[in-house]
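Supplementary Text 2. Reproducibility record for the structural model of the 213-residue chain.

All settings were left at their defaults, and a single model was retained for analysis rather than an ensemble. We include the record here because the model underlies the residue-level annotations in Supplementary Table 4.
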Amino acid sequence: MSAGSVPSGVVLLTDRLVASGPLDLVVARAVAGGVRWVVLRDKDLPRAERAALAVDLRAILADVGGTLIVAGPDPLGGDAVHLPAAGPYPPPAHPLVGRSCHNQAELDRLTTEHYVTLSPVHPTRTKPGYGPPLGVSGLRTLARDSPVPVLALGGVETPEQVTACVQAGAVGVAVLGALMRAENPTDAAVALTRAFHEAVTPEPSTATSGDQT
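Retained model, structure tokens:
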């Protein structure tokens, strides 16, 4: 993880309970498709098992210069965490700290966090009761007012949705089901990451100085 870097592009959130195969294999396939940031959730596991899983996932990401972020205040031997909106406040002093936010009031509580997720952008199977969706327009409003870079989270499953989130001001999208449940996580990751890169790449100018006569 380079100094000052924050998650961008397609960020994978893990959930072994819905994964289409063994979690490490699904993550490896998503990484093969272009994913470089992974958030380890699976918070129901005992710490020792979760720490062992973190070691495995870090090894997969190390091959491509990727980064593992651990959900919760305990980095499990690493240096990157993603905290819930509820706390702790102030955040621990790790090199990379993210926070889940859902509204302006939660953004206003930020202090030293480096990035946030804004959710849910769309209805989601993972947290179906977590408030009304922000929609792309709500995402745009909150992203504009956020003091730190924003990842769009919640129901982002298609390349078109990735494009819309980036155009609304997100530096990336955090996805769970679209990759965890995918029959082919590599192909799914390729499609989503391609949409991200196309959305952030400026359109080439059709006119050049040599065109004028």
